[in-house]
Amino acid sequence: MANKGATIVIVHGAWVGGWRWRGVADILIERGHQVFTPTLTGLGEREHLTSRAVNLSLHAQDIANVVTYERLENILLVGHSYGGMPISAAAELIPEGVVQSIMYMDAFFPEDGESLNDLVPGEPHLPADSDDYLVPPPRSNLVGFNAHMDPAARAAYEDRRTPQSVFCFAEKARLTGARDRIPQKTYVLATGYKNDTFAPVAEKLRRREGWRVEEMPYTHDLQHVAVKETVDMIESALPK
Questions:
Q1: Total of domains in the chain
Q2: d(C-alpha 39, C-alpha 62), whole Å
Q3: Suppose 91 and one of 59, 130, 178, 239 were both cysteines; which one would form an S-S bond, judging by CB atoms 3.0 to 4.6 Å apart?
Q4: How confident is the model at residue 169 (pLDDT cuts 50, 70, 90)?
Q5: What would the mean pLDDT of 78-101 be, rounded to a whole number?
Q6: How far apart are CA 169 and CA 136, in angstroms?
Q7: Which residue in 57, 81, 115, 140 is the catalytic one?
Q8: DSSP states of 4-70
Q9: Per-residue pLDDT, 137
Q10: What residue ranges in 114-227 does DSSP mark as E strands?
C-alpha cells in the first residue's frame, strides 16, 4: 500500500511549466498526498522573469527554495526530462536527509561537470554563443516522443510552451555526491518510442548499486499519455 500523506515535489521539463503535471498532481492529491509542481523561473506563468541570469543553478535554487519555505521533510523528488538536471543540482542545496527518495522519469542524468548539451546525442543543438539567449521550443509534431498527441492536445500544448534560456542547457552541473546519498533512487525509462537519449542512462544505472530501474511502455510525455500509470509509478517510489 502506498504511503498515505507523502510529500512529493515534481519538476517539469524544458519549455513548459508546472501546469504540464496538473493531471498527475490532481490524482496524487486525491490519494492523500501533498504535491508541489513548481514552475521554474522564466517558464510557464513565470516567463516574464526570464533573463540571461536564468540558468541551471537558478533552477536548482527554485527547487531548494520550495523545500525551504514550505518546510518540507521526508520528500520524494521527481524530475522529468530536463527536470533531471535541476533536481540533480538541487540535491546539493537541500539539507541531507530531507530528500528520502529521488525519481528520474525519462530524464537527463548528469554526472559532475556535465551539461544538458553534453548529454544530447549528436551535435550540440543549443549553442551558448547565440546572439539571442532564448531557445525556442522545437515543434512537437517533429519530435517523435510527442507523436501520441492528437490535434487538440497538440494545440493546447504548443500554446503554453515558452522559450527557455540557453544557459539552462549550457551550464555544467556541479555535483559532489549528495544525490548518491539519497536512500531511495529510481530511474524510469519510457520504451514506447526510439529512445536514444535516455536508454543509455537506464542501462548505466542498472549496473550502479542502489538504483532501481523501471520501464513504462509509453512515449516521453508520460504525464500526458499515461496519467494513472505515471501516478502509480510515482507512488512506487514513495519514501519507506
A1: 1
A2: 8
A3: 178
A4: very high
A5: 98
A6: 12
A7: 81
A8: TT-EEEEE--TT--GGGGHHHHHHHHHTT-EEE-PPPTTSGGGGGG--TT-SHHHHHHHHHHHHHHT
A9: 87
A10: 134-135, 164-165, 184-190, 211-216
Whole domain around residue 11: which residue ranges? 7-116+124-235
Average pLDDT over residues 7-25: 97
Interacting residues of 136 by C-beta distance below 8 A, sequence separation 6+: 163
Cα 37 to Cα 25: distance, rounded to the nearest angstrom: 8
Confidence of residue 128 (pLDDT cuts 50, 70, 90): low
Amino acid making up residue 155:
A
Query: What CATH number is attached to the domain comprising 74?
Result: 3.40.50.1820
148 pLDDT above the threshold of 80: no
Q: What is the mean pLDDT of the segment spanning 156-167?
A: 89
Q: Is 200 helix (H, G, I), strand (E, B) or coil?
A: helix
Q: Which of 93, 83, 85, 68 has the alpha carbon at shortest distance from 18?
A: 83
Residue 193 has what DSSP assignment? S
Residue 135 near residue 126 (C-beta atoms within 8 A): yes
Q: Which pLDDT belongs to residue 142?
A: 47
In a domain, 1, yes or no: no
Q: Which residues contact 39 (CB under 8 A, 6 or more apart)?
A: 12, 17, 18, 19, 45, 46
The span from the CA of 166 to the CA of 181, in Å, is 30
Examine residue 25 and state whether it is found in any structural domain, yes or no: yes
In tens, the pLDDT along 181-236 reads 999 999 999 999 999 999 999 999 999 999 999 999 999 999 998 999 999 999 99
Whether 185 maps to a domain, the answer reads yes
Residue 131 belongs to a domain: yes
> Is 81 in the active site?
yes
Higher pLDDT, 129 or 31: 31
